[in-house]
Amino acid sequence: MTDHHARLAALRTQLATDGLDGFIVPLTDEHMSEYVGGYAQRLAWLTGFEGSAGTAVVLADRAAIFIDGRYTIQVREQVSGDDWAYVGVPAESVAGWLAAAAPAGARVGYDPWLHTRAGLADIATVLAEKGGALVAVARNPIDAVWHDRLQPSAAMMRPYDETLAGASSATKRSDIGDWLTEQGADAVVLSALDSIAWALNVRGGDVDHTPVALSYAIVNADGSTDLFVAPEKVDDALRQHLGNAVRLHARADFAPALGRFQGKKVIADPERAVAAIADAIEAGGGTVIARRDPVVLAKAIKNPVEVAGHRAASARDGAALSRFLRWIEAKAPRGGQTELSAAAKLLEFRRAEGLLLDSSFATISATGAHGAIPHYHVNEQSNAPLEPGQLFLIDSGGQYADGTTDVTRVVPVGAPSAEMRDRFTRVLKGHIAIATAVFPDGTCGAQIDGFARRPLWEAGLDFGHGTGHGIGAYLSVHEGPQRIASPNYPGGASLEPLRAGMMLSNEPGYYKPGEYGIRIENLILIEPRDIAGGDPDRRILGFETLTFVPIERDLIDPALLTDAELTWLNSYHADVERILGPLMEGEDRQWLSQKCALVG
């Protein structure tokens, strides 16, 4: 905490030098990424907070960190309450806090490469009402005092084979060009790293756990593309892969290039393109059209090759996780295991498969009370032993060339209590309700979120996060625009229509503060459903489960399950054994059969 206190003081000194009364520090990078490279970890450097969502505001005499309900415990463990006020969102906001805390006439700075225009609008209004102003800075003041700041990654940008992508980059860029013509626009700026990776069939290694490369792209109406990437990240193989229709430029040339659209219309995504991009286009005489990046939806609807790849990756991943679950079941009750040792062992099992390229996120290895922190991140300071009477939650995933996985399982260390079994079974009932849901085409995630919560609601319980997120194809573990979520939890209601071909997670949970956490997560694919006797003019969709790993039978109370739920569970375990059985041998195979035996 002492280092972070000194860093806060240094920032305040720099703000005074810059003529600023405050500064806004988001947890993002110039691509509005969820996970960012070490060079962009300004919020963590300043405050010590290591969560994946948050914002800080620094004034001369006070400071606040804004986090949602997933991080209320974590932020208190990592960020000093002597220096920072903890502010919960969405109940409160940066704009609301500044309305009360900022002095009259305050000049509050922001880095225009780290915020969208929409994200700044309310803040600007509040400050203007107090006679102040929101001020764009030419240099981020944190960078001025962060003397040992890491440099951006030098990892190469790599071709991604069409046999894995399922479509050529030329086809994708041609489709984007056709879309631009329909929109009456001359070009679109792609600033989201996964959009560039998908559109150009490239991958990289610049962000931990996410195979993307720091770059920008401008796709023109004729399908030709200008790619801005550091020259040292490009080799002859990449040049050959991209072809003549993709013109290469240094990444540093991107901002100047935005000033060359005089008299032209350029699409920039209002959620993904930072304010500096729109500012530069308009300063050069161009017109900005605020419209969603066309890659977002195209990327979300997986093609048959991507789906087949995920199935193959998921089977390998499921076998590795199952071997780990057998190991932890045997080892944990004997003592000597910790959250870190368990996470390391799981990585060892995944690597043994031979095709793992990376984890898809930092493994959530959480025992006892730590399991009640949905996005807990274990480190040397927090590392806890696995002890009898606890529940151990493991949320993890792998990055494979043919797919990205994400799965959560919970196992008891020793005998679980009756309450644990009750809560686990209610979470399972919610999981089954999503897995078996059918719904008309056009239904949004907010409409089915309650299916997962009803069994908990009936016992006066709930969980404080969304039920499902989209997932990429060897890309981001969290991918939009589809989600399953209600208005009451982080991110708000998911109003994006669910479409066939989209992939989501199905992960209801329950968290008892100070005691344990439960989450059951599989990945699911949206597919058409034929309903006998249904309206022939109404398209009905449902979910196919893609993740196959045993669900811990010792935590299930069969008396709480309906006949239909028992049928689903036993059918699921039959599929687990059918798919994973050929990949497992000896005692691992025997254990799998035991875990997949009929329940009820």
TrEMBL record:
Q: Where is the Peptidase M24 C-terminal domain?
A: 540-597
Q: Does the keyword Hydrolase apply?
A: yes
Which SUPFAM superfamilies does the record associate with it? Answer: Creatinase/aminopeptidase, Creatinase/prolidase N-terminal domain
| Any one GO cellular component localisation term in the record | cytoplasm
**For the Creatinase N-terminal domain, which residue ranges apply?**
7-127
What's in the keyword line of the UniProt record? Aminopeptidase, Hydrolase, Metal-binding, Protease
InterPro entries the record matches: Creatin/AminoP/Spt16_N (IPR029149), Creatinase/aminopeptidase-like (IPR036005), Creatinase_N (IPR000587), Pept_M24 (IPR000994), Pept_M24B (IPR033740), Peptidase_M24_C (IPR032416), X-Pro_aminopeptidase_P (IPR050422)
| Lineage top rank: taxon | Bacteria
Keyword hit for Hydrolase:
yes
Instruction: Look up the EC number in the record and give it.
Output: 3.4.11.9
Spell out the molecular function terms from Gene Ontology: metal ion binding; metalloaminopeptidase activity
Q: Which residues form the Peptidase M24 domain?
A: 310-527
Q: What Pfam families does this protein's entry cite?
A: Creatinase_N (PF01321), Creatinase_N_2 (PF16189), Peptidase_M24 (PF00557), Peptidase_M24_C (PF16188)
Record's family?
Belongs to the peptidase M24B family.
Protein name (database record): Xaa-Pro aminopeptidase
Q: What is the scientific name of the source organism?
A: Sphingomonas jinjuensis
